[in-house]
Amino acid sequence: MSLKPIYILVLTGMLLGGNSGTAGAASCANAARQVAASTGGDLLSALPAPDDPNMCLVTVIVPASDGTPPRKITRRVPAS
């Protein structure tokens, strides 16, 4: 997993999130790395939660090992 896509997604989240600052974006980037590592998935998006600036919505695509399609998982995690 490359860091560059994470930062692009976090910056997109900042633009769409409106009132979240750079501290929230950095926190979601760290949370995104942790979720991607724990699931073995590829990061799809990492955005500050719209109702709580201390939480992030992280979505990853987890590849299947048995021939089934990959799964999309969204986790609500604390900003770190």
Automatic annotation (TrEMBL):
<protein>
    <recommendedName>
        <fullName>Secreted protein</fullName>
    </recommendedName>
</protein>
<feature type="signal peptide">
    <location>
        <begin position="1"/>
        <end position="25"/>
    </location>
</feature>
<keyword id="KW-0732">Signal</keyword>
